[in-house]
Design a protein that fits this description.
Elements: H1 5-15, H2 19-26, E1 32-36, E2 57-60, H3 70-73, E3 77-79, H4 86-91, E4 100-103, H5 110-116, E5 124-128, H6 132-145, E6 150-153, E7 167-173, H7 187-191, H8 194-211, E8 215-225, H9 234-243, E9 246-249, E10 260-261, E11 270-272, E12 282-289, E13 324-329, E14 332-337, H10 341-350, E15 353-356, E16 358-364, E17 367-370, H11 372-376, E18 387-389, H12 392-399, E19 413-419, E20 422-429, E21 434-436
C-alpha cells in the first residue's frame, strides 16, 4: 500500500511510536461485522464474537456472499463496519420517550437502522441524504429494517434551517477525506490530498452551521468522521464548541475496548485505530447545545389537501391499526403513528420526503397492490395475506425478480413469501404462474450465484 508522503508525516505525528503497528494493520484484511435486527432475527446462536460496544453487533470469521442471503434482504441483519456501531453507545444516554432524531448524512443506512432499533414507538427518526440515488438506497434499507417511526428525506443541510429547534438529537456523520477507509477502499488513497482535507473541514463547518438552528437548546449533536487528521476532528469539535456555544460531553467506555482518546487531551473525543480496535478508522464526539429557546411559535403541520378517508380494508393490514393515521402520498397509501402524524405533516411542508412510516401499497382500479414496504414492516398483520414458505433456491429466484411457480394448493391472489419465517415480499399467484412483485430496482443483479445456500445467521 503506497500512502501519500504528507499523510504519512502527519499521521506519524498523531501516532508517534504506534506508527509501525498502524501501518502493519493497514496491510491486513479488514474485519467483517454485522448487526442483527433483534425484532426480526431468529436462530442467532451461531454468532458469538460480539462487538463489545454494540450488543447486537457481531464479528464474522470470513466474508460470505451477503448478496445471496435472503435474510439480509428481509432486514434480519445489516452489514455494518464495527467502529461505526459506537454511535449507539453515544446516543443511548440521551434518548427519552418521544425524541426527535435527525441522521443528516444517513446513506446507505447503517447508523440509521442502528438508531431506529433504539427508539421507542413515540420517537421519530428522520434519515436524510443529499444525493438522490443514495437517498433511494437509504429508503430501501430503512424499509427493510421494518420500523414504522422513520421518515426518509432527500435534502441539503440548509433545507433544515427552517425547522427551528425541532430535533432533540442530530447525528452528523460528516462527509470527510476518508483516511479511515484506506484499507477497505484504495481509491480513497488516490483521492487524498492536504487540499481536500482542508476543503472537507470547511464543508463540515458549513454543514454544522446550516443545521444548528434546528437543534433544540440542551439538544445533542453527535459529530463523527471516518478520518484521522485533526482538522476534520478535534479542531472542528473545538470550532463547534467555541463558535456555536456547545459543551463537549464524555461517553462511557471500557478500557478493554481500546478506544483512543482525542489527540487534544483537553476535550473528550473518541478515536478508533485499526491496530488497537477491531474495526476501521473512526472519530466521534458528543456536544450539547447551550442557551435558551429562540423560537417559541413553531407552526403545526398542515394537510396540503383535504384528508382522504382510507378504505376500511387498509386497517386490516396492520397490527394495532387503531394507533395509525392512514394518508396518501402520490398514488400510495401510507401509515404512520398518530402521535407522529402532525410532525410528519410539518416536515412535509419543509422537506422532500421519500417515505414516511409504512408504505402500504396502491390501488389500480379496485385492486389493491401491496408494497414491498408493507411486506417488510414489523407492523404487518401476518393474517392479512396467505403466506408461503420458500427454500433458498426459490428465494434467490424471487429476489432476482425472475418467474416462480407456486404449488397448485396455494391460494390465488396476493401471497406473502417467507424464508425461514421471515417475509421477503409479495407475489400475485395466478395459478399457472405467479407475478413477481419484488421492486425492480431492488433485485439481485449479480449472476455469480453460489452452489450452496448462503446463511449468515442461521
Amino acid at each position: 500500500m503506497h500512502l501519500p508522503s504528507e499523510f504519512v508525516e502527519r499521521t506519524k505525528e498523531i501516532l508517534s511510536s504506534e506508527w509501525d503497528d498502524f501501518l502493519s494493520a493497514l496491510g491486513q484484511e479488514p474485519p467483517v461485522s454485522i448487526r442483527i435486527n433483534k425484532h426480526k432475527a431468529k436462530g442467532t446462536d451461531t454468532l458469538s464474537n460480539i462487538v463489545p460496544w454494540c450488543e447486537n453487533g457481531y464479528y464474522l470469521g470470513q466474508r460470505p456472499q451477503f448478496t445471496f442471503d435472503p435474510l439480509l434482504h428481509a432486514g434480519c441483519y445489516y452489514v455494518q463496519e464495527a467502529s461505526s456501531m459506537f454511535v449507539g453507545q453515544a446516543i443511548k444516554p440521551h434518548l427519552k420517550e418521544g425524541s426527535r432524531v435527525l441522521d443528516l448524512c444517513a446513506a446507505p443506512g447503517g447508523k440509521s437502522t442502528l438508531i431506529a432499533g433504539l427508539l421507542d414507538e413515540h420517537s421519530l427518526l428522520v434519515s436524510n441524504e443529499l444525493i438522490r440515488s443514495r437517498a433511494n438506497i437509504l429508503a430501501e434499507n430503512m424499509m427493510k429494517w421494518g420500523k414504522a417511526n422513520t421518515i426518509v428525506t432527500n435534502n441539503c443541510p440548509a433545507d433544515f434551517s427552517n425547522l427551528k429547534e425541532f430535533f432533540d438529537i442530530i447525528l452528523v456523520d460528516a462527509p470527510c477525506s476518508g483516511e479511515g477507509m484506506f484499507r477497505k477502499d484504495e481509491e480513497t488513497i488516490d483521492e487524498w490530498s492536504l487540499a481536500n482535507v482542508n476543503l472537507c473541514s470547511e464543508r463540515q463547518q458549513k454543514i454544522i452551521s446550516d443545521i444548528w438552528d434546528s437543534l433544540k437548546p440542551d439538544g445533542i449533536l453527535i459529530y463523527s468522521t471516518c478520518t484521522y487528521n485533526t482538522e476534520e476532528n478535534e479542531k472542528n469539535v473545538r470550532w463547534i464548541s467555541e463558535t456555536l456555544d456547545a459543551e463537549i460531553l464524555p461517553i462511557n467506555t471500557e478500557k478493554e475496548w481500546k478506544i483512543s482518546p482525542a489527540v487534544d487531551n483537553q476535550i473528550p473525543a473518541y478515536r478508533f485505530f485499526p491496530h488497537k480496535t477491531l474495526g476501521e478508522g473512526f472519530f466521534l464526539s458528543v456536544l450539547k447545545k447551550d442557551g435558551e429557546s429562540q423560537y417559541t411559535n413553531r407552526k403545526k403541520g398542515r394537510d396540503k389537501k383535504q384528508k382522504v378517508k382510507a378504505p376500511s380494508e387498509l386497517h386490516n393490514l396492520l397490527t394495532d391499526s387503531q394507533d395509525y393515521e392512514f394518508f396518501k402520498k402520490g398514488n400510495y397509501w401510507q401509515a404512520i403513528s398518530k402521535s407522529l402524524y402532525e410532525d410528519c405533516n410539518y416536515l412535509s411542508d419543509n422537506l422532500n420526503i421519500l417515505n414516511a412510516g409504512i408504505c402500504l401499497g396502491e390501488y389500480k382500479g379496485k385492486d389493491f397492490i401491496p408494497h414491498q414496504g408493507l411486506a417488510l414492516s414489523l407492523q404487518l398483520d401476518r393474517e392479512a395475506y396467505p403466506c408461503f414458505e420458500v427454500d433458498w433456491n426459490t428465494a434467490i429466484t424471487y429476489l432476482r425478480r425472475e418467474n416462480i411457480i407456486l404449488p397448485t394448493d396455494v391460494k390465488k391472489g396476493y401471497v406473502l413469501l417467507t424464508h425461514k419465517d421471515a417475509p421477503i415480499g409479495f407475489v400475485k399467484n395466478l395459478g399457472n404462474r405467479a407475478n413477481n412483485l419484488y421492486p425492480q430496482e431492488w433485485r439481485i443483479r449479480s449472476a455469480n450465484i453460489p452452489n450452496e445456500p448462503v446463511s449468515v445467521i442461521g
